Protein backbone atom coordinates (compact mmCIF):
# COMPACT_ATOMS: atom_id res chain seq x y z
CA UNK A 1 0.00 0.00 0.00
CA UNK A 2 1.31 3.41 -0.99
CA UNK A 3 1.49 5.47 2.18
CA UNK A 4 2.90 8.63 3.71
CA UNK A 5 2.88 9.01 7.48
CA UNK A 6 3.79 12.34 9.07
CA UNK A 7 4.99 12.78 12.62
CA UNK A 8 6.63 15.38 14.83
CA UNK A 9 3.84 17.91 15.21
CA UNK A 10 2.85 19.43 18.52
CA UNK A 11 2.61 22.57 20.58
CA UNK A 12 5.56 24.95 20.46
CA UNK A 13 6.13 28.47 21.72
CA UNK A 14 6.66 31.39 19.33
CA UNK A 15 10.28 31.49 18.23
CA UNK A 16 10.69 27.79 18.87
CA UNK A 17 11.69 24.94 16.58
CA UNK A 18 10.18 21.68 15.44
CA UNK A 19 11.18 18.96 12.99
CA UNK A 20 8.53 17.11 11.05
CA UNK A 21 9.13 13.72 9.48
CA UNK A 22 7.28 11.89 6.74
CA UNK A 23 7.81 8.14 6.33
CA UNK A 24 7.10 6.80 2.87
CA UNK A 25 6.23 3.24 1.88
CA UNK A 26 4.77 1.33 -1.04
CA UNK A 27 6.61 3.22 -3.79
CA UNK A 28 10.17 4.03 -4.85
CA UNK A 29 10.77 7.09 -2.70
CA UNK A 30 13.96 8.11 -4.52
CA UNK A 31 12.06 8.45 -7.82
CA UNK A 32 9.73 11.23 -6.68
CA UNK A 33 9.99 14.87 -5.75
CA UNK A 34 8.32 15.58 -2.41
CA UNK A 35 6.56 18.54 -0.89
CA UNK A 36 5.15 19.96 2.33
CA UNK A 37 1.74 21.63 2.18
CA UNK A 38 -0.02 23.19 5.15
CA UNK A 39 -3.58 24.09 6.00
CA UNK A 40 -4.43 26.50 8.79
CA UNK A 41 -7.61 25.69 10.73
CA UNK A 42 -10.62 26.38 8.55
CA UNK A 43 -8.45 27.75 5.74
CA UNK A 44 -7.21 26.64 2.34
CA UNK A 45 -4.10 24.81 1.22
CA UNK A 46 -0.73 26.55 1.19
CA UNK A 47 2.34 25.02 -0.42
CA UNK A 48 5.38 25.33 1.86
CA UNK A 49 8.45 23.58 0.42
CA UNK A 50 9.52 21.13 -2.27
CA UNK A 51 12.57 18.95 -2.89
CA UNK A 52 13.70 17.01 -5.94
CA UNK A 53 14.05 13.24 -5.91
CA UNK A 54 17.79 13.35 -5.29
CA UNK A 55 17.62 16.22 -2.84
CA UNK A 56 19.86 18.46 -4.92
CA UNK A 57 17.16 21.05 -5.53
CA UNK A 58 14.80 22.71 -3.06
CA UNK A 59 12.26 25.50 -3.30
CA UNK A 60 10.36 27.34 -0.59
CA UNK A 61 7.40 29.66 -0.26
CA UNK A 62 8.30 33.24 0.58
CA UNK A 63 6.41 32.91 3.85
CA UNK A 64 8.93 30.37 5.20
CA UNK A 65 12.18 31.32 3.46
CA UNK A 66 15.06 31.54 5.87
CA UNK A 67 13.09 29.74 8.59
CA UNK A 68 12.11 26.31 7.21
CA UNK A 69 14.40 23.75 5.60
CA UNK A 70 13.23 20.73 3.64
CA UNK A 71 15.45 17.67 3.33
CA UNK A 72 15.22 13.97 2.62
CA UNK A 73 17.01 10.74 3.40
CA UNK A 74 16.37 8.34 0.55
CA UNK A 75 18.08 5.46 2.34
CA UNK A 76 15.41 5.76 5.04
CA UNK A 77 12.50 6.69 2.75
CA UNK A 78 11.95 9.76 4.88
CA UNK A 79 11.19 13.42 4.22
CA UNK A 80 11.85 16.13 6.78
CA UNK A 81 10.88 19.71 7.48
CA UNK A 82 13.00 21.62 9.96
CA UNK A 83 11.01 24.60 11.21
CA UNK A 84 12.78 27.37 13.10
CA UNK A 85 11.59 30.77 14.27
CA UNK A 86 8.01 29.56 14.45
CA UNK A 87 5.22 32.12 14.47
CA UNK A 88 1.55 31.97 15.38
CA UNK A 89 0.69 32.11 11.68
CA UNK A 90 2.55 28.84 11.12
CA UNK A 91 -0.17 27.04 13.07
CA UNK A 92 -1.61 24.48 10.68
CA UNK A 93 -1.93 20.86 9.69
CA UNK A 94 1.20 19.97 7.75
CA UNK A 95 0.89 17.41 4.97
CA UNK A 96 3.66 15.74 3.06
CA UNK A 97 2.79 15.04 -0.55
CA UNK A 98 4.41 12.95 -3.28
CA UNK A 99 4.96 14.51 -6.68
CA UNK A 100 4.25 12.57 -9.85
CA UNK A 101 7.58 13.85 -11.24
CA UNK A 102 11.15 13.45 -9.98
CA UNK A 103 11.95 17.14 -10.32
CA UNK A 104 10.03 20.17 -9.09
CA UNK A 105 8.53 21.40 -12.33
CA UNK A 106 5.33 22.74 -13.73
CA UNK A 107 4.28 19.37 -15.07
CA UNK A 108 4.04 18.05 -11.54
CA UNK A 109 1.11 17.27 -9.28
CA UNK A 110 0.71 15.75 -5.84
CA UNK A 111 -0.77 12.27 -6.17
CA UNK A 112 -0.23 10.89 -2.68
CA UNK A 113 -0.84 12.79 0.58
CA UNK A 114 -0.25 11.85 4.17
CA UNK A 115 -2.84 12.22 6.90
CA UNK A 116 -1.16 15.36 8.22
CA UNK A 117 0.39 16.40 11.52
CA UNK A 118 -0.82 19.37 13.54
CA UNK A 119 1.56 22.14 14.51
CA UNK A 120 0.35 24.70 17.03
CA UNK A 121 2.43 27.78 17.78
CA UNK A 122 1.24 29.44 20.95
CA UNK A 123 2.50 30.70 24.28
CA UNK B 1 3.22 37.10 -6.64
CA UNK B 2 1.00 34.90 -8.77
CA UNK B 3 -2.59 34.43 -7.64
CA UNK B 4 -5.30 31.92 -8.47
CA UNK B 5 -8.89 32.96 -7.84
CA UNK B 6 -11.77 30.54 -7.24
CA UNK B 7 -15.41 31.23 -6.34
CA UNK B 8 -15.95 30.50 -2.63
CA UNK B 9 -18.93 28.31 -3.30
CA UNK B 10 -20.80 26.50 -6.07
CA UNK B 11 -24.12 24.69 -5.76
CA UNK B 12 -25.47 21.98 -8.02
CA UNK B 13 -28.43 19.61 -8.05
CA UNK B 14 -27.77 15.88 -8.07
CA UNK B 15 -27.31 14.56 -11.59
CA UNK B 16 -26.51 18.00 -13.00
CA UNK B 17 -23.18 19.39 -14.18
CA UNK B 18 -21.01 21.40 -11.82
CA UNK B 19 -18.35 23.78 -13.12
CA UNK B 20 -15.69 25.21 -10.85
CA UNK B 21 -13.45 27.91 -12.25
CA UNK B 22 -9.93 28.98 -11.41
CA UNK B 23 -8.60 32.26 -12.76
CA UNK B 24 -5.06 33.52 -13.06
CA UNK B 25 -3.00 35.66 -15.40
CA UNK B 26 -2.26 33.59 -18.53
CA UNK B 27 -3.19 30.45 -16.63
CA UNK B 28 -3.75 28.73 -19.97
CA UNK B 29 0.01 28.88 -20.55
CA UNK B 30 0.55 26.80 -17.41
CA UNK B 31 -0.67 23.39 -16.29
CA UNK B 32 -3.67 23.39 -13.97
CA UNK B 33 -4.10 20.79 -11.25
CA UNK B 34 -7.24 20.07 -9.19
CA UNK B 35 -7.70 18.47 -5.77
CA UNK B 36 -10.77 17.34 -3.88
CA UNK B 37 -10.84 17.55 -0.09
CA UNK B 38 -13.65 16.20 2.04
CA UNK B 39 -14.08 17.30 5.68
CA UNK B 40 -11.47 15.81 7.95
CA UNK B 41 -9.62 14.13 5.09
CA UNK B 42 -6.46 14.77 3.12
CA UNK B 43 -6.67 16.21 -0.40
CA UNK B 44 -7.06 13.85 -3.35
CA UNK B 45 -5.71 14.56 -6.83
CA UNK B 46 -8.55 14.55 -9.39
CA UNK B 47 -7.08 16.32 -12.45
CA UNK B 48 -3.49 17.07 -13.45
CA UNK B 49 -1.82 18.63 -16.49
CA UNK B 50 -5.13 20.34 -17.29
CA UNK B 51 -7.07 17.30 -18.46
CA UNK B 52 -5.58 14.06 -17.13
CA UNK B 53 -7.38 11.90 -14.58
CA UNK B 54 -5.40 9.72 -12.16
CA UNK B 55 -6.42 6.08 -12.02
CA UNK B 56 -9.43 5.59 -9.78
CA UNK B 57 -10.95 9.00 -10.46
CA UNK B 58 -14.39 8.68 -12.06
CA UNK B 59 -14.84 9.73 -15.67
CA UNK B 60 -17.41 12.34 -14.61
CA UNK B 61 -14.47 14.52 -13.54
CA UNK B 62 -12.89 16.49 -16.40
CA UNK B 63 -10.76 19.57 -16.81
CA UNK B 64 -9.98 22.30 -19.29
CA UNK B 65 -7.65 25.27 -19.36
CA UNK B 66 -7.51 28.19 -21.76
CA UNK B 67 -6.78 31.88 -21.63
CA UNK B 68 -6.94 32.99 -18.03
CA UNK B 69 -9.30 30.30 -16.75
CA UNK B 70 -9.10 26.64 -15.86
CA UNK B 71 -12.32 24.76 -15.25
CA UNK B 72 -13.10 21.58 -13.35
CA UNK B 73 -16.31 20.00 -14.61
CA UNK B 74 -18.22 17.29 -12.79
CA UNK B 75 -20.87 15.67 -14.96
CA UNK B 76 -23.77 13.86 -13.34
CA UNK B 77 -22.77 15.19 -9.93
CA UNK B 78 -23.35 12.84 -7.04
CA UNK B 79 -23.82 13.52 -3.35
CA UNK B 80 -20.39 12.00 -2.70
CA UNK B 81 -18.82 14.78 -4.78
CA UNK B 82 -19.71 17.37 -2.15
CA UNK B 83 -16.31 18.67 -1.00
CA UNK B 84 -13.84 21.53 -1.22
CA UNK B 85 -11.96 21.78 -4.50
CA UNK B 86 -8.61 23.49 -4.96
CA UNK B 87 -6.80 24.43 -8.14
CA UNK B 88 -3.00 24.61 -8.31
CA UNK B 89 -0.42 25.87 -10.76
CA UNK B 90 3.32 26.36 -10.98
CA UNK B 91 4.44 29.97 -10.97
CA UNK B 92 7.42 31.12 -13.02
CA UNK B 93 9.08 32.30 -9.80
CA UNK B 94 9.50 28.62 -8.94
CA UNK B 95 6.71 28.16 -6.45
CA UNK B 96 3.52 26.20 -6.35
CA UNK B 97 0.36 28.27 -5.93
CA UNK B 98 -3.04 27.09 -4.73
CA UNK B 99 -6.37 28.77 -5.31
CA UNK B 100 -8.42 29.71 -2.28
CA UNK B 101 -10.74 26.75 -2.69
CA UNK B 102 -14.37 26.26 -3.70
CA UNK B 103 -16.96 24.55 -1.55
CA UNK B 104 -19.19 22.42 -3.76
CA UNK B 105 -22.65 21.81 -2.34
CA UNK B 106 -24.88 19.16 -3.87
CA UNK B 107 -28.50 19.90 -3.03
Describe this protein's structure:
Chain A is mainly beta and 123 residues long. Chain A has strands at 3-7, 10-12, 18-25, 34-39, 45-51, 58-60, 68-73, 78-83, 92-99, 110-113, 117-121. Chain A is globular. In chain B, strands 1, 3, 4, 7, 8 and 9 form a 6-stranded mixed beta sheet that branches. With 107 residues, chain B is mainly β. Chain B has no helices and 9 strands. The mean pLDDT of chain B is 97. The interface between A and B is medium-sized, with 26 and 26 residues.
Write the layout of secondary structure elements.
The complex is a heterodimer of chains A (about 120) and B (about 110).
Chain A: E1 3-7, E2 10-12, E3 18-25, E4 34-39, E5 45-51, E6 58-60, E7 68-73, E8 78-83, E9 92-99, E10 110-113, E11 117-121
Parallel strand pairs in A: 2-11
Antiparallel strand pairs in A: 1-3, 3-8, 4-5, 4-9, 5-6, 7-8, 9-10, 9-11
Chain B: E1 9-12, E2 18-23, E3 33-37, E4 44-47, E5 61-66, E6 69-74, E7 83-91, E8 95-98, E9 102-106
Parallel strand pairs in B: 1-9
Antiparallel strand pairs in B: 2-6, 3-4, 3-7, 5-6, 7-8, 7-9
* Cα Rg of chain A: 13 Å
Distance between the termini of chain B: 36 Å
By secondary-structure content and strand pairing, the structural class of chain B works out as mainly beta
Report the uncertain regions of chain B: none
Number of strands of chain B: 9
Structural class of chain A: mainly beta
**Rg for CA atoms of chain B:** 13 Å
